[in-house]
Automatic annotation (TrEMBL):
Keyword Ribonucleoprotein set for record: no
Protein name (database record): Flavin reductase family protein
Essential cofactor(s): FMN
Keywords: Flavoprotein
Xref: SMART domains: Flavin_Reduct
Length: 186
């Protein structure tokens, strides 16, 4: 039996990428965090990420002003904090301090890394042409840092409407990726 969802719920089927925290630093020096589930890899070389950040997000202004951010990838142990970060605004709250997260200096951007996250991707806006129309920013990844000492590495994936899935077993089919072998780093 097939169950039909309204078209506006398409994200519940397609958006299963890991939740990220977007870290920005405004021109006045204030750092902010926001939770984001709507993002996608766009290409490998250069590494481009599409990210939906609209004017309803406090981080939008900082991204517009500075053209840079960090995409911090939290693990399942931070799931409740990640949801709570998404339920408040940085216009009146220092989210790093309030949620006990540690800002760390990045090497290529002024926005801070999030020390408690498994991975941090330093990004610069490479194309904002779609931002005015679709709130879609094209970010070029400048640097990726992975915390290899971190024991918890399971990522959380947004399924919409407050539902999440957690990484589980990995299915490794790298040997079958013959057409794309040049992209693999083994």
């Amino acid at each position: 039996m097939l169950h039909e969802l309204p078209a506006e719920k398409a994200y519940r089927v397609l958006e299963s990428g890991p939740i990220v925290l977007v870290s920005t630093r405004a021109s006045d020096g204030r750092a902010n965090l926001m939770t984001m589930g709507f993002h996608m890899m766009m290409q490998h070389d250069p590494p481009l990420v599409g990210a939906v950040i609209g004017p309803w997000d406090h981080s939008h202004q900082a991204l517009s002003e500075t053209g840079e951010c960090v995409l911090a990838v939290p693990t399942v142990d931070l799931a409740e904090t990640v949801v709570d970060i998404g339920n408040c605004s940085g216009d009146a709250l220092n989210k790093f301090a309030h949620f006990g997260l540690t800002p760390a200096p990045a090497q290529t951007v002024d926005a801070p890394l999030v020390r408690e996250c498994w991975a941090n991707l330093e990004c610069r806006v490479t194309d904002d042409g779609w931002a005015r129309r679709y709130n879609l920013w094209v970010l070029e990844v400048q640097r990726v840092c992975i915390d290899t000492a971190r024991e918890e590495t399971r990522l959380i994936h947004h399924q919409g409407d407050g539902r999440f899935s957690v990484d589980g077993d990995t299915l490794d089919l790298a040997e079958r990726m013959v057409k794309w072998r040049y992209l693999m780093d083994r």
